Structure formats: C-alpha cells, structure tokens
Amino acid sequence: MQKRIISNNRIRSREIRLIDEKGNQLGVFDLRDALRKSREAGLDLIQVTEKVDPPVCKIMEYGKYAYQQGKKDKKPHQKSGELKNIRLTFAISEHDMETRAKTSLKFLDKGQKVRIEMRLRGREKALGNFAKEKIDKFLKIVRTKTPIKIERELRRQPRGLTMIIAKIIQQNENAQITEKKV
Length: 182
Prior knowledge:
CATH class of the largest domain: Alpha Beta
CATH architecture of the largest domain: 2-Layer Sandwich
Number of domains: 2
Shape: rod-shaped
Number of helices: 5
Order of helices and strands: EEHEEHEHEHEEH
Helix content: 25-40%
Distance between the termini: 42 Å
CATH superfamily of the largest domain: Translation initiation factor 3 (IF-3), C-terminal domain
C-alpha cells in the first residue's frame, strides 16, 4: 500500500520547513514563497513529512520521489524460506550419496531448507525398510558435517518417502563470540 504523496498546491500548511534540490535546509518559509522557489527551479514542492510542525517539504521532481518511495515500500524477497530438493534413488551408490550430501550442505549453509525425496518404483515399494536405511545413512553423512534438525519426519507418500531438514543455528557460539569481543 503506497502512501499518497502531497505536492505543490495540495499542501495545506501555511508555513513549511524547506529543503532545496541539493539537500540543504533553507529554513522556515511561507507556502507561497516556497512554491515560487520550486517553480523557478522547474521542480515540484513535495511534502516529505507532516509529523512535525511546520511540515518538511523538499524541492525535487515528483516522478523521482514517487519512484524512490515505491522502491522503499517494496518488501525484499525472503530466500531463507526457500525449499530445495535432493532426490535419492533406491539403488544409490556410496559416492553419489556423498555428492548429494555436499550439495545439501551448500543449501543448508545458505539457510535454506532441504527436502529429501526417495522415489520408489514397483517392487521397491515393498522394501520400505531398506529405503529408510538409505535415508538414515544419508542423514548420518550430513550430520557429520553440520548439525541439522528434522523439520518434517520421514513420511511415506504414494511415490516414495520424503522428509524436510534444516540447519540448526547454534546460539551458544554466537554468545561466546560476543563475549570475547566485549
């Protein structure tokens, strides 16, 4: 939701605190004098804040100010909630499992969550215990490198098994670091 920009003749106060196009404070002016100054400069008089008395107004281009306000109002995208997939197969080799563990570690270090999927096809669905052992082996490899927490437990779904893991942010280390700096 963008706040409406008050400019030029829409300003209702009789006196204003004026800032020129270079950012210098010119002082308190009568509204008519400030409008005359802005027209002489070929720019608009924009009310920046109305919370103070007299309100602060700035001489600048209306379009430029509206663009800056629009950029300021936009929310930054959150990448920490992003979910990355790591797909394991039923007959995955030891080396491939280590490679997938390294890629999942990269995602976890960036603060992203990782969904571990193991697709089961045909007869593999009957051997669910063997598939769980493979996932446990994968988790053991990841745990040796970094502490993790399980966001969602291992679930059996129609096409296989899935679980979600995330990195544990250790606050003890952060507290120790701040104590050393003090």
